[in-house]
């Protein structure tokens, strides 16, 4: 199904940029987990437009409402529906896109697939679609905190264009990430990134970069052999986010330039348990977590919607020019950080419950 | 489920390296598709061990048998079971691995997850597991040939260690790939790669690289918005293959260093239909194919099993040394080419049928 | 998943009796199907409480709102979310059920499973849960009308307690069903049923019965062999409705008292196509529709919540007495008619799309 | 998918009556469960043809082979493939069915759906298809024995035509069922049934009946609200068996003729836990087991293939006569007893694992 994710902790999202609302249903959530709208709002606020001067100015509070599945502050085990109503919709700003396809956006492919599309604000292809994911993931995080106390998921901007941060995956903290509006824990580089994004926006252009995510405290044994390898599900999860172009885990593409004797992570006993001396595997071997930090990087392309005039074609098949209006992010990465975290939490929570189903242990 | 893939064209694989057999069931295959064991054997032969001097010498004919779902040379619409019996099993060569975990292999994580593992030849974590995938994909290719006549899937070795080939994704041909044992269509570079792999093997070491895959002739409209984006499913598919560390599509990680005005693929009318002038998108926009060639790259790490002595721990938690015996590939890439093709065919066939379900067109 | 139904046309429902709202997301709906809130409201009105003097007096307009997936009066192929906000909630009327389990209701089993339950109005075990099903089925009916023009689904009350109607499955019309408040097309028997239900209610008691459903105009070829037989999915669908105890198709239990020579439906050519002379099969053979009318019966038990004092136990494990208050149906059947229709439409629509996926035809 | 069943304990079956083999893959099985081919063979022997004078004389040992997923006598957590090769195939005995459709069999509907069918022995619509189910269920029983020690599943013939047995669901034992060839624990009635079946066979005819199944020792809390109610999944499971026409649980259709005050099962504390005084609910309330015995009945029609001449049509659309040859059961019920048990075990095992996933308890 197009809009469902997960097997044991399954989410179903809905909603368009300018439709009535966006939201999610979470099915399979364990009962008796503490949950409030505030738990969800915290992450939605990190994702919302208008949060800083380097993101889209669309003005949405993105206030969530839990419609079901929670009773007296606790989950009941039944489906949890969360909804956010769209407020600041301005369909008229998208009128050009009714008849012209934005280059490298989803306008043309939706039309080719469905023979119809909601052209207002990108419809389902808008980044607003991720609200349901982030809301569901806030619930997943509550579950994970109970199943694997001490587990931490930290994502951050690793690079913007050529500007690359230096970050220690074993030590980076959430607070360092949230300390600046670009969400890069390397404070000096963050400044440069912010200036650069402003510059690019002033030029009516856009820019991409990479996000790195690390999971510390994940128990050994999560994930499955063969198709549902933990890294395969993480890759699918993050590459289902808008604007992504690549995923690599541990040594990644650079690892292809090492020999086995350099790349293998020797095992050793440390602090009474099996550990690896290095971690080029990125915390996963054979599709299953090994207890070391899991870390991976995701490539985000420059935002497709720019304010420069571009060549394109009309829905009736004629060459034309398009210059976008509307409100758009010059760089999606600052707001994509909570989205990457969200997909990571969803994958881990799903696999934690699946592991419990089959193996009877957390 | 650990060993199932696809929604409408769903495969279920089974089998260990040294168990009785490996194989697959394909459920949901359209009826009246011509299919013989020879159609499947062709691809199994490209995947099998012992096929050349740069792969594992394990001697397996990998002869397949169709047990069901085909009648008088045609699929009947019922499940197609394909089985390959293991012949050249030598469990004694793996005796050390009964008690010691191979670094960067799945030995430890299987034990951590299940509390038991078939240590003979890596069990389910062996590359033999991919026989079922390749067999199923041979069926998928027959279906695709009927649903989208002219569709072509070509995968090839793009790099081995630092040795990178020059290949034109718009023109590369299957025959050029199969012209040499390393499966690199750049003949000059292929020679260097072969020599290098031999050298590495002589040193008891292993090496990785990248595989590129291109799909030409894919209709616009395949894939789904949100979670089951075509590139997300391709990423999951290929990253579920053993030894993979990364995936990138179109511009990939390099695309993060471009601006939107450089990265966007302008649309234009060409030969009577909507085309893009460039193809940094890699043939997919918003999760849905746009009719341009789909191409992506996959990173493979150096094989974990090497013949040098390595530090590791025993199943009872003591530090030890391990030197592997057995028969292993010094470099998985030549045999991984048909595996990448296979996962690509499976994803496309599944999405083709899903598209037909929802939209009623091929 | 507890609250999902269907594979290709998949619905996810949510909501409790006294929570904020109830509703559904439909994923996989074909694009360009005409759809308005009025199309959905029509069936919700047939399901809603307070519609007549023989059902619960709870006062809910059950006005639905489409939140996504429809643009300019047509489905877009993206998820359709429909929501109904709860209005006339009176949690105080359920206060006794906070601590005492209603006999033959779901109070105890929810507590045993989840260790928590929303006791207000039965929570998720309330008949309000079926709003999402009926709303989704209204969409399914629009799809079916396009895929199989002329297809008709007619459900009706066949018996209440000992009062059994005489109905011709080949001729019964929707208008005859809707002509009276008990939804029995045998007008004379309907009068008796209505009187009987009033009598039972006056006594503080409740009563059950059977609903029969017929599908005319279903094409041959829908359904699948083995597990997802059309009748198996219909059985699952209707037996997932609250208060159901049995399902039989065609000859049903009575068929077990016939010999093969009496039971077999001879084939014959009629009006240029393959027909059966009799229809004890009930329109399905080997799990697949044969083009004849599909008809089946569903047993509904008497409503569990009655106004007589009953023996039960408390949540803390003590014997006690319980006398229900609140607003309850003395007989669920009149309102269950659109629910049975709904599950039938959902099963058929799902199988129609699955058939199209695999076989490429409607 | 047509040939898959279960979510957490998922089986995929394959195979035709006269194809090379029939079998199953079980995915999601917990690790470290003792399992041998003998554990599976025991149930296959109860299902196999030729086992007594009242079933089909086809001579098949149905000897199973485990191809994967078991190591040193224990499950490994990876897919378990079990295969049975067909031996006594006699396609020539089905030659008439190549061109004529057997009344009330699946010949016509398979042709209508797929445009092709394996007419030898009924292909996938043969009762041989159930071998995979029975094999998988033998594994499920091993799992259940560990998750819920003491759980018992006992199915038996309750009636043949008008001959109905008297059986106490709370006390009936497996040994009583297996004590005679018709598998009816009422010994006196069993004799009559056996004579009757012989008589019917001598007349070239066939006969149906009902099977009852009871589960004792099922913990409270298995099953899910809404769509995947335990009774809905049981109904789907058994109605996916060949020749079934109806399902009823607890009071069933007879319950529709009671009032709520007669039908409700009062709760009481007994032996320190919540029990019901009566059990008209049949052990399930709101879709979730309540700890009381679960019992239900299944209607089986008379076998479609009879030796009397019947009217039918040819594949080219002409009226004709058909008189079957081949080897057929005059009554499927004796062999259907292990099939009903099998579907029950599969449903319970799946829900046990799903319950553990969500609620963390067995």
Keywords:
homotetramer; globular; alpha+beta; 18 strands; 362 residues; 9 helices; 22% strand; 5-stranded antiparallel beta sheet
Written account of the structure:
The structure is a homotetramer of 362-residue chains. By secondary structure, chain A is α+β, with helices and mostly antiparallel strands. The first copy, chain A, has helices at 37-47, 95-99, 107-114, 130-147, 174-178, 187-202, 230-239, 260-263, 333-359; strands at residues 4-5, 10-15, 21-27, 64-66, 70-71, 74-75, 80-85, 152-160, 163-164, 209-216, 244-249, 267-270, 273-276, 284-285, 288-289, 294-300, 310-313, 319-322. In chain A, α1 packs across α4, α4 (130-147) crosses α9 (333-359) and α7 (230-239) runs antiparallel to α9 (333-359). Chain A is globular and about 65 Å long. Chains in contact: A-B, A-C, A-D, B-C, B-D, C-D. Chains B and C meet through α9 of B and α9 of C. β11 of chain C pairs antiparallel with β11 of chain D, so a sheet runs across the interface.
């Amino acid at each position: 199904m197009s809009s469902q994710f997960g097997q044991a902790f399954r989410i179903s999202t809905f909603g368009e940029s300018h439709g009535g609302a966006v939201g999610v249903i979470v099915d399979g959530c364990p009962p008796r987990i503490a949950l409030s709208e505030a738990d969800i709002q915290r992450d939605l606020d990190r994702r919302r437009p208008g949060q800083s001067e380097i993101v889209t100015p669309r003005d949405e509070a993105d206030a969530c409402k839990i419609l079901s599945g929670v009773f007296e502050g606790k989950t009941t085990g039944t489906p949890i529906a969360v909804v956010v109503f769209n407020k600041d919709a301005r369909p008229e700003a998208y009128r050009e896109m009714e008849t012209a396809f934005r280059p490298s956006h989803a306008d043309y492919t939706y039309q080719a697939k469905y023979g119809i599309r909601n052209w207002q604000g990108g419809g389902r292809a808008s980044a607003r679609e991720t609200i349901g994911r982030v809301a569901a993931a806030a619930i997943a995080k509550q579950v994970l905190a109970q199943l694997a106390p001490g587990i931490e998921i930290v994502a951050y901007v690793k690079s913007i264009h050529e500007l690359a941060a230096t970050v220690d995956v074993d030590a980076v903290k959430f607070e360092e990430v949230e300390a600046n509006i670009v969400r890069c824990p390397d404070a000096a580089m963050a400044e440069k990134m912010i200036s650069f994004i402003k510059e690019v926006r002033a030029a009516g252009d856009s820019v991409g970069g990479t996000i790195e995510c690390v999971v510390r405290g994940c128990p050994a044994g999560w994930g499955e052999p063969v198709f549902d390898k933990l890294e395969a599900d993480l890759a699918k999860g993050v590459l289902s986010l808008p604007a992504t172009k690549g995923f690599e885990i541990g040594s990644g593409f650079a690892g292809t330039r090492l020999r086995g004797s350099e790349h293998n992570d020797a095992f050793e006993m440390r602090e009474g348990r099996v550990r690896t001396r290095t971690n080029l595997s990125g915390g996963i071997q054979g599709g299953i977590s090994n207890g070391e930090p899991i870390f991976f990087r995701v490539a985000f392309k420059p935002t497709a919607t720019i304010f420069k005039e571009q060549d394109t074609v009309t829905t009736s098949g004629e060459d034309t020019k398009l210059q976008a209006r509307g409100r758009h992010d010059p760089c999606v990465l600052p707001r994509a950080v909570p989205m990457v975290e969200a997909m990571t939490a969803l994958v881990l929570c799903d696999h934690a419950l699946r592991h419990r189903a089959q193996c009877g242990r957390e």
